[in-house]
Design a protein that fits this description.
Elements lengths: L2 H6 L8 E4 L3 E4 L4 E9 L7 E11 L5 E3 L4 E5 L4 E13 L7 E14 L1
Parallel strand pairs: 2-8
Antiparallel strand pairs: 1-3, 3-6, 4-7, 5-6, 7-8
Length: 114
């Protein structure tokens, strides 16, 4: 077995992609804004689920972030420009133990709060 197969397990993630419905959004302080994640193809392997991780790249104040699929909820407390990196992965627990995962998308997102 090759090293790459050991690292990636038995699931081939190469056929899956993720994107955001919109890369930029506007909103108001204290109100929720949602980024919608689109996974293609939409049918994921049995036993797997979608994970979203959000990194704050720039923010005038710390936002409240609730990762999820298909929507990520972000509430920004104050006005300003907020920038994020949203990573989407397939995660599952195969029958042989351990965890298999693969990143299928990593997109920058911006939120302009006025």
């Amino acid at each position: 077995m090759q090293a790459e197969e050991l690292l990636r397990g038995t699931i081939d993630f190469s056929g899956y992609t993720a994107e955001l419905e919109e890369l930029t959004k506007t909103g108001k302080p204290g109100e929720p804004v949602y980024f919608t994640v689109i996974v293609k193809p939409s049918d994921i392997p049995s036993g797997f689920y979608i994970s979203t991780l959000i990194n704050v790249l720039e923010a005038p104040e710390t936002p409240e972030i609730i990762p999820g699929y298909p929507r990520v909820k972000i509430v920004c407390p104050g006005s300003g420009d907020y920038k994020f990196m949203i990573r989407v992965s397939l995660v599952g627990k195969p029958s042989c133990g351990g965890v298999e995962s693969g990143t299928i998308g990593e997109m920058p997102a911006a939120l302009y709060i006025r």
